[in-house]
Amino acid sequence: MAAKDTEKYAVPGLERGLRILSEFSRQTPTLTAPELARRLSVPRTTIFRLLVTLENLGFVERLNNGRDYQLGTAVLRLGFEYLASLSITELSRPILERLRDDTGYSSNLVIRDRRDIVYIQKVAPASVFSSSVHIGTRLPAHATVLGRVLLSHHSFEQLQALYPEERLQAHGPNTPATTHDLYTLLQKDKARGYVMEEGFFETNISTIAAPVHDESGVVVAALGLTVPNLRIPEAERERLIERVKNAARSLSVSLNYSGAYA
Question: Which of 23, 46, 115, 165 has the fewest CB atoms within 10 Å around its CB?
Answer without folding.
Answer: 165
